[in-house]
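Fold Annotation — chain and its backbone
Next Lines — sequence and tokenised fold

***
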Amino acid sequence: MEMIALDKELKENSYPGRGIIIGRSADGTKAVTAYFIMGRSENSRNRVFVEDGEGIRTQAFDPSKLVDPSLIIYAPVRVLGNKTIVTNGDQTDTIYEGMDHQLTFEQSLRSREFEPDAPNYTPRISGIMHVENGSYSYAMSILKSNNGDPSSCNRYTFAYQNAKAGEGHFIHTYKCDGNPLPSFEGEPKLVQIPDNMDEFADMLWESLNEDNKVSLFVRYIDIETGKYESKIINKNH
């Protein structure tokens, strides 16, 4: 698979929607994830990321303008032992609870499907990072409608064992802007992961469409120690 330039990919797509990137830093020492949200409606844009324990959650920037919290207020990132869960919805909790009861990542998601937001039927995208004793693997999932037909849910899981240094994968909810919004197609895109968290965060933020971007979260986890550093950038502040 050809590695794509992430900045170019984002600059050329005004509305990838929500996106998850997971990979390993170029020097091989860090497990890396990034999650961004975008919005076209006032309700979607009225959000910020805030720290919540070892993870993050979304909250309304201006509570007086919050219309329907059901699909926009959730915890995108939660940590369960040596596992870090990243998703675009409340399925973070479904995965956390499932894995806490010895289900796999894939099994935990079987009870869920795409979002009920007709006519877009936004895909649920999820990622799991497993860092233990110097080893690192990750997986990504997308649950989406059958080409816009909500009567069937198509489920795909992509697992990356012994993650390679300098490589990551990028999955997002929408192929591009549109009405209705077309779901992401194919397997996660191969992208480059740098060593510097601040540079990576700045590149992502600057590459996202200025009108539609809302918030960005980036985390670098030391594969040997499990210690991490994170960065949050909110358009509303």
